[in-house]
Amino acid sequence: MPRILISTGEVSGDLQGALLIQALRRLRPELDILAIGGERMAQAGARLLANTTQMGSIGLLEHLPFVFPTLRLLQKMRRELTPQPPDVVVLIDYVGFNLPLARLCKPWGCPLIYYIAPQEWVWRTANTPSIVALIDQVLAVFPQEAAYYQKAGVPQVEWVGHPLVDALAAAESRQEARQQLGIAPAQKMVALLPASRRQELKYLWPVMAQTAQQMQHQCPDIEFWLPLALPEYQAQLERDIRRYRLRARVVTESPRRVIAAADLALAKSGTVNLEIALLDVPQVVLYRVSPVTAWLARHVLRFQIPFMSPVNLVVMREIIPELLQEQATPRRLTQLALEHLHQPAPVRQRYREFRQALGNPGATERAAQVILNYC
User: Fold this and answer.
1) Who contacts 252 (Cβ-Cβ below 8 Å, separation ≥6)?
2) 10 Å Cβ neighbour count for 372?
3) Dihedral (C-alpha) 195, 200, 203, 204: value to the nearest 10 degrees?
């Protein structure tokens, strides 16, 4: 029986891993699938070796608390997997752990496949040579990603398209989502999506809460809904809602349903931006890291990126507004949010170009079939 190891981290990686596992199970139900990820992957039919959904970080200093947990997890994987290595290893994003894991697995001789590879074509970090040396095939979700890794010298690269195209094909309409949530058709509702990582809650949520406060001052009838990413965030979110006197609620409903019901989303930069766009909901994106990390990135590492949000990166132009670091002020965010709330048509028109660049339906099945060719 073929054994496949799938490794990822964070909430969004867990979702993508689960979708891939479901596709693999549809094609080969008898597979033995091992997972480093989260509960969604376990529910999809994998045997969970470690839960990594809270180990992700973005930034230099922000990564430091995860160094020793990452090393301990690698040691655990060495002990558990060396006696019977997997037949195929599939890595999903999560470069801080997945590249060391690839080095661990390389001597076993099993094929190493990167699905949703690190965005080296954007960040231009020092990881590209390691990916070229270690990885046998990249399954790209963006056309720019495929072109970059082909040019870099990865042995096999295939653009399969983005799995969210399939995942959201049968998503609820705005009307259906509102009926399920009990929201009146005329009620203005804004979805707040600040965090799946602890550091994001620290740097993004206060700005988002102040923005909601200013929006509420100008439009008192607005309601704010916060789908809960992780249970441990609930107490702080509810405490701050009281502090800022927001007409807001923290809910455990599906984030996708809340987004579908929304008139606007105020969101961090990440995979969630793709979901929001595919659900045809206007959005304003913000992102912040610590001031020290931002200074080091700009002045020492010389990071320069065209965009942060994957929606803009897909077509390499501004489809949605994104405000980064010191630009992400409550005043500017409020201005953009109210503009998009009251005039949603322009961004919805730009979404059409974005959707075309994500590829045809069937991405997850295409990725699963390539993986199974190695078994």
Assistant:
1) 227, 228
2) 16
3) -30
Helix 10-27 crosses helix 363-372 at what angle (to 10 degrees)?
70
Which string of DSSP letters, residue by residue, matches 350-372?
HHHHHHHTT--S-HHHHHHHHHH
| CB proximity list for 353: less than 8 A, separation 6 or greater | 315, 319
> pTM of this prediction?
0.84
DSSP state of 270: S
SS3 state at 121? helix
For the record, the structure tokens of 162 come out as: 């983005």
Q: Is residue 35 within 8 Å of 47, Cβ to Cβ? A: yes
**Separation of alpha carbons 172 and 181, rounded Å:** 12
* β-bridge partners, 190: 224, 264
Q: Which residues contact 102 (CB under 8 A, 6 or more apart)?
A: 89, 91, 112, 130, 134, 135
Going along the chain from its start, the domains and CATH numbers come out as: 3-162+359-372 (3.40.50.2000), 174-356 (3.40.50.2000)
What is the C-alpha separation between 29 and 39, in angstroms, rounded?
A: 19
Rg of the chain in Å (alpha carbons): 21
| pLDDT tens for the 375 residues of the chain, in order | 899 999 998 778 898 999 999 999 999 999 999 999 999 999 999 999 999 876 554 554 445 555 667 888 899 999 999 999 999 999 999 888 999 999 999 999 999 999 999 888 877 778 999 999 999 999 999 988 999 999 999 999 999 999 999 888 889 999 999 999 999 999 999 999 987 777 788 889 999 999 999 999 999 999 999 998 888 889 999 999 999 999 999 999 889 999 999 999 999 998 899 999 999 999 999 988 777 666 666 656 566 677 889 999 888 899 999 999 889 999 999 999 999 999 999 999 999 989 988 888 999 999 999 999 998
